[in-house]
Amino acid sequence: MCIYITLNHTVHPSQKHLYVRGALQTRTYLCVLQDQFYIKNPIFCLILFHFPALQVIGGSVTVVQGGTAILPCHVTGTDDDLIQITWQRRTREKPHNDNFLTILPREGVQFVNGGDDRFKYIGNFNQKNGTLQLADVTLKDEGSYTCIFTLFPSGNQKTEILLIVIETELLLPFCLHVLFATCTAAGSKPPAEVRWLTDALGDEVRTTTNSTQYDNDTTTTVSSLFGVPTREINGHQVQCVINSDAMSKEETLPFSIQVYFPPTEVNIRAISENSFECVTEANPSANFTWNGAKLQLLSLTSDLNGLYQCEASNAYGSKHGQLYVHVTSGEVSLDLAVQFVQIFLNFFVISELLCVVILFSLLSIPVKGNLNI
């Protein structure tokens, strides 16, 4: 008969099982085999028991401003009774440690010092899961969140979750830098210098230059031009300038930056008393759906009364402009201010897609200038 004993003292031989409550560390237990008189011929053996250690699991979270953050928190390795879950925070808005939410088995979620509907408890109390969801995250929410489990009999166990909030204003320009063009001076000896002249673009573009030297002592230098594909940068002229001691003069290669975008605001302007033109900005140029880009009223009668719509579209999207015509007694009344705009795909949507799928179709195929020396 093998008798299990407790951690700190020997159990009477009649107790055949050791019941463990809570989470214990790996320990060595003594098993004593004795005869029926408990005093003769004792036999000792060592038994190693391993119990999973109690652990509160959290983790750092990064979210874009305006997004939804999941603050993970759950406890493992214990059969202790869970009394309550407490959440604390220390954020930009609240720099001092602040109890803001408790979760009880019967009462459920209770806010402390005022509620915040952006927080939602998505964990499970019976499973010792205290995970929270925070919607519409702002910069003020950035900071440290502490999840505390009150257990019996082991007491409080906690972990800290760091929430990092990324500003969209900082994120978009960073992730939207795409390749406009590359300029290559290939096989030159000595190495060539490659630089860009960007005129008024200034900080709106950046360049990178890399050189590769070969066994025959020639060097290939590649310079790339990057920037954010905005409507304002479309059509700008830049020059790649290549210079080398082996050249009699500098070589200048011109490039025109092409950014494709859907029609912008659609405007309707009067050309004459009974002729109107639909105007917009787009790249490539927009197509118009009322008799070309112009609407001409052949006769001024009340039969023409109504709302006229001009649609401007290209491969990247479309927009509408509307014109209301009212004819009375041979006179025409026009309302050019009616501009019902329907956006199917605007430039900013395309820009955001660039962040996710690197939509290089917004740009012209990079022009590559090669100079072999």
Characterise the protein shown here.
It is a single-pass membrane protein. This is Ig-like domain-containing protein. One of its GO terms (cellular component) is membrane. By secondary structure, the protein is mainly beta. The protein has four domains: 53 residues, no CATH class; 112 residues, Immunoglobulin-like (Sandwich); 96 residues, Immunoglobulin-like (Sandwich), CATH 2.60.40.10; 79 residues, no CATH class. It is 5% helix and 46% strand. It has two helices and 27 strands. The strands form eight sheets. It has a six-stranded mixed sheet with strand order 4-13-12-7-8-9. Strand 8 and strand 9 form a beta hairpin. It starts with 26 loop residues before the first strand and ends with a strand.
Walk me through the topology.
Layout lengths: L26 E7 L9 E7 L5 E3 L3 E4 L4 E3 L2 E3 L4 E11 L6 E7 L3 E4 L7 E3 L10 E3 L8 E10 L2 E12 L1 H8 L2 E11 L4 E5 L7 E9 L5 E9 L9 E7 L7 E6 L10 E6 L2 E5 L7 E2 L5 E3 L9 E9 L2 E12 L2 E5 L11 H11 L10 E5 L1
Parallel strand pairs: 4-13, 14-27
Antiparallel strand pairs: 1-2, 3-6, 5-11, 7-8, 7-12, 8-9, 10-11, 12-13, 14-17, 15-18, 16-17, 18-19, 20-21, 21-23, 22-24, 24-25, 25-26
Pfam families: C2-set_2 (PF08205), V-set (PF07686)
Keywords: Cell adhesion, Disulfide bond, Glycoprotein, Membrane, Repeat, Signal, Transmembrane, Transmembrane helix
Protein name: Ig-like domain-containing protein
